[in-house]
From TrEMBL:
Transmembrane feature ranges: none
Ranges of residues in domain Aspartate/ornithine carbamoyltransferase Asp/Orn-binding: 154-304
Binding site for L-ornithine: 165, 225, 229-230
Keyword Ribosomal protein annotated: no
Function text: Reversibly catalyzes the transfer of the carbamoyl group from carbamoyl phosphate (CP) to the N(epsilon) atom of ornithine (ORN) to produce L-citrulline.
Record field: catalytic activity: carbamoyl phosphate + L-ornithine = L-citrulline + phosphate + H(+)
Pathway given in the UniProt record: Amino-acid biosynthesis; L-arginine biosynthesis; L-arginine from L-ornithine and carbamoyl phosphate: step 1/3
Molecular-function annotations in GO: amino acid binding; ornithine carbamoyltransferase activity
Species whose genome carries this gene: Roseicyclus marinus
Domain Aspartate/ornithine carbamoyltransferase carbamoyl-P binding: 3-147
Localization in the cell: Cytoplasm
Protein known as: Ornithine carbamoyltransferase
Enzyme class, UniProt record, top EC level: transferase
Any one GO BP annotation for this protein: L-arginine biosynthetic process via ornithine
Length: 308
């Protein structure tokens, strides 16, 4: 069974093929209405279950549109409707869904839920996000960087802020796509060391630099993410703001990067917290290309999972 669970679990040659196919599919439908079908309909007759335990805008819309453009149909389900792991075991849910649909995309909290779903499903399972990783976002980010600046191999990517699930997938990608990765954030919010060690074992130059200006020096790409999540308490929000304020991506910080460096953010952004309006809306920002490319990258991921 071909699941897409994490970037580090997929061979570099297959990741490269997906990025190239995403770029080709995007180019082939340039100028068309958003709802117009692709010339080829590789998902014709296929049903895809989109399961959301966590709320979503980009993941929900991009997967739904991607399936429709490729001729398939979607069934959108929420965690409250399904009670994953409560009213029925995750394993049994996986077995049942596999009798009805051709593929499952799961956006959930705990990685164990995703892994158990994949272990027991007899159809492909795609990781739409867990608290640990966010591989579809980084596939879109690789596509976005390369359409603006060419191959990402050998480039310097700098992450400013919290060592969260999006950073973890960047670390996976550094090892698979061959770029250098620097984390710059406060020590209490460091990423899990295992992500850094794995990237290094695959030949990537990965480091932690606390001083954001020194970290960003010579960067080809600067990335950040929101400082707080929707479930954080007010006390947590205040603490994280105090910890992360020195790592705000603003015009002064971007001046330390290369003149043609790009800025990315997976969105939603809390403007003038982790990133200023001037950077978010400035000439180096490609955040809305990133958002669009969720659609194209995930279409390639779905085709790879189904072998179509």
């Amino acid at each position: 069974m071909t699941h897409f669970l994490d970037i580090n679990k997929t061979a570099p040659t297959e990741l490269r093929a997906m990025i190239d196919q995403a770029a080709a599919m995007k180019a082939a439908r340039a100028g068309r209405p958003k709802g117009a079908p692709d010339d080829t309909q590789p998902l014709a007759g296929r049903m895809v279950a989109l399961i959301f335990e966590k709320p979503s805008t980009r993941t929900r819309v991009s997967f739904d549109m991607g399936v429709r453009q490729m001729g398939g149909q979607t069934m959108v389900l929420t965690g409250s409707e399904m009670q994953l792991g409560h009213g029925e075991t995750i394993a049994d849910t996986a077995r049942v869904l596999s009798r009805y649909v051709d593929m499952i995309m799961l956006r959930t909290y705990e990685e164990d839920v995703l892994l158990e779903m994949a272990d027991h499903a007899t159809v492909p399972v795609i990781n739409g996000l867990t608290n640990r990783t966010h591989p579809c976002q980084i596939m879109a980010d690789i596509l976005t960087y390369e359409e603006h600046r060419g191959p990402i191999a050998g480039k310097k990517v700098v992450w400013c802020g919290d060592g969260n699930n999006v950073f973890a997938s960047f670390a996976h990608a550094a090892g698979q796509f061959g770029f250098d990765l620097t984390f710059s954030g406060p020590e209490p919010l460091d990423p899990e060391r295992v992500f850094l060690e794995e990237a290094r074992a695959k030949g990537a130059n990965v480091e932690i630099i606390r001083d954001p200006a020194r970290a960003v020096a010579g960067a080809d790409l600067v990335v950040t993410d929101t400082w707080v999540s929707m479930h954080d308490s007010q006390t947590t929000r205040e603490r994280r703001h105090n910890q992360l304020r020195p790592y705000q991506v603003n015009e002064a910080l971007m001046k330390h990067a290369k003149p043609d460096a790009l800025f990315m953010h997976c969105l939603p952004a809390h403007r003038n917290e982790e990133v200023t309006d001037a950077v978010m809306d400035g000439p180096q920002s490609v955040v809305f290309d990133e958002a669009e490319n969720r659609l194209h990258a995930q279409k390639a991921v779905m085709r790879w999972c189904l072998g179509v």
